[in-house]
Design goal:
Number of domains: 2
Oligomer: single chain
Strand order of the largest sheet: 12-19-16-17-14-13-20
């Protein structure tokens, strides 16, 4: 049996680095949100390249600025955004696995392509589950490397359960997303979609939207044409991943992993899980478009995605 040992030490913390497994499920009735990786696609590929099973905790690095020192020899994988990663100062290509020797420094700089990078270690990071998951939700003080929902800080030690794995594995070209391209986000129309004016619905699915600078792991505001809804008020409902709420100012908010569990604004519908992943990599000011899809389309796309990691 492999025991957890110190694997990486934080030399510089950066703005936001969090430990995330697949998410915390079955507790929303308690008002606890799911957490988990904002970009499920990038997180899944990091674990796949490291040879880990689905759900293995990996590190989500937002905006870069993180510097880690290896405490032992490891095989790691980096996927998702290009955050100018380096190993001992030498540029590091993403979407692949590599060997890191004890004492080497792995650093993430400024965003070049996308917003969030994922770092997986062969064997996985080790942390005590809270409510069945190590997913870090800072707002709720749950999960993460210390169980208290803290982002990484200078001097923190990340424990790992190391395992032998092959270095040099590379994700197929079609899996390596260029996050600089305009994003088309699949949206499943929701219960209140018929309450929006015809002009608003036309604008919602035909006009470009821009990612507002008010964006985090709770949700992303979109700036564009004002959407008008005939509903003056409604009783709060349960909120799922990707719900697109429209508050009175008419500017939609797409809710992500750390969202609240209920909400009372009318909804256009919900983004698919893969659309949420794509949106989570968009920088402020980036253009996105909404595309209405049927449940069958979204389900088929997700099943095809998951089949890769079976």
């Amino acid at each position: 049996m492999t025991h957890a040992t110190d694997g990486l030490r934080v030399a510089r913390a950066g703005p936001l680095a969090l430990l995330q497994d697949a998410g915390r499920f079955g507790v929303r009735r308690l008002g606890v949100t799911q957490g988990g990786p904002a970009d499920l696609h990038g997180w899944a590929w990091a674990n796949q390249l490291a040879g880990n099973a689905w759900g293995t905790p990996a590190l989500e690095v937002t905006f870069g600025g993180l510097e880690l020192v290896a405490e032992q020899d490891l095989v790691v994988a980096v996927a998702g955004a290009d955050l100018s990663a380096t190993l001992d100062g030498e540029p590091l290509d993403g979407w692949r696995s590599l060997s890191v020797k004890a004492g080497q420094r792995l650093a993430f700089g400024a965003p070049v392509n996308g917003l969030r990078a994922y770092l997986a270690v062969a064997g996985g990071f080790a942390a005590a589950p809270v409510l069945g998951s190590v997913a870090c939700v800072v707002r709720e003080g749950l999960g993460g490397h210390d169980g208290l929902g803290h982002r990484l800080a200078e001097g923190d030690a990340l424990r790992v359960t190391p395992r032998c794995a092959d270095a040099g594995r590379v994700a197929p070209r079609e899996a390596q997303v260029d996050y600089r391209r305009p994003a088309e986000l699949a949206l499943l129309p929701g219960a209140q979609v018929g309450e929006f004016s015809g002009e608003s619905l036309f604008q919602a699915f035909n006009a470009p939207w821009r990612v507002d600078d008010r964006a985090d792991r709770m949700g992303v505001r979109l700036s564009g044409p004002r959407l008008d809804c005939r509903m003056a008020s409604m009783i709060s409902e349960g909120i799922g991943l990707g719900a697109v709420q429209v508050p009175p100012d008419g500017q939609p908010i797409a809710l992500l992993n750390d969202r609240q569990t209920i909400g009372g604004y009318p909804r256009l519908g919900a983004l698919s899980p893969l659309a949420c992943s794509r949106l989570a990599q968009c920088l402020p000011g980036q253009e996105v478009r909404l595309k209405a899809v049927a449940t069958e389309q979204a389900l088929a796309a997700y099943q095809s995605f998951r089949a890769v990691f079976a």
